[in-house]
Amino acid sequence: MIITLKMPIVYIDQWVNAQEKAKEFPDTFGLPDEHLLLRLRKDWTVKISNGEERFWVTVIDVDGEKIIGVVDNCLVGGYEYNYGDFVSFEKKHIYQIHTKTDHKRIKKELLKKKV
Q1: Torsion region of 80: left, alpha or beta (phi above 0 gives left; psi -120 to 50 gives alpha)
Q2: DSSP annotation of 54
Q3: What is the pLDDT of residues 56-111, one digit of tens each?
Q4: CATH code for 10-114?
Q5: CA-CA distances (angstroms) from residue 71 to 2, 14, 58, 77, 85?
């Protein structure tokens, strides 16, 4: 029996370095808490940017500074990648982090607004 495994395509782009943006615009640009970056885990969501659009990515794997995740919202820019595609980036590219606790809180807030 021969088993054929299909490896997913992992997209890499010219991601914006959020650390550099924060240095460039210190009064108006915030970064995620350093402790959260160090503790980054699978299933957390992070916001990154390709220079034209910021979007959310669900973290699949963290290996030191390198991260692989799945794009978590539909993009409007017509890139090679979109919702559900795998992307690879580094911690320095992260603009914002949502932990599992954040997800629960946000979901609860959204449900309150619908009532």
Answers
A1: alpha
A2: E
A3: 999 999 999 999 999 999 999 999 999 999 999 999 999 999 887 776 676 677 77
A4: 2.30.30
A5: 32, 15, 7, 13, 6
